[in-house]
Amino acid sequence: MRGNRSRAWLAPGPNKPMQIAILQPSFIPWLGYFDQIARTDAFVFLDDVQYTRRDWRNRNRIRTASGWMWLTVPVQTRGKFDQSLLETQIDHSTDWRAKHLQTLRHNYTRAPYFEEVFPQLENVYARELALLVDFCLEMLATINQILGLQTKIYRSSELNIEGQKADKILSLCQALNADEYLTGDLARDYLPVDEFEERNIKLTYQNYVHPEYHQLHAEFFSHLSVIDLLFNEGPRSLKILTGAHAENAEVVTAS
Fold first, then answer.
1. Taking 60 as the threshold, does the pLDDT of residue 5 lie above it?
2. DSSP character for 109?
3. Residue 244's pLDDT is what?
4. Of the chain's two ends, which shows fewer C-beta atoms within 10 Å, N or C?
């Protein structure tokens, strides 16, 4: 399954600014996550930060006949309140992988592209990985491949960048020689615009507008995992998820 190539997949030319995005690894994320990957020249998985509970790191939502449900990767958290993402281990005391696959079969077996997408996800579940971050990154790489995304991917832990929160983001931008940083709207509350301006890095806020697409059941539910889109729309998925930006979203830039 391949989408049409976009400029985001090509190395920036001499007159094209280097645009990057930075997000924490998450389990089968929503459409807006992959919109950031598709729109940028380089994407950084922020994997050397603290693990946050009851967040998107180890769970996401899928569609069911009655609405939606959580699909959760169990992790070891007892007595590990300050553990980082790099330290967070999957809890393999139950056969959660078989349960996930059974749940996906039950809810999506009638989806138009189930037979094309499911085996590729199944291949990731076949691996008994110890760390949550490794499982999430394997799944993200598979979804990028299904979508046809070829954006350059980095892990922040491999870039050896010091700092916390906004300082770390700014340092990562500098390390990759970024001219532009694409981020979500919530970043307005904590990013120091003036410090980015001093370093000639333009801030662009994603302002993602969620599209509607075909689902198996009548009422449309938005902000589900991207796999809901893949099962239902197959090769049209990339055009649908990026078309929301191209046609509707207002890009707000601070420079």
1. no
2. T
3. 56
4. C
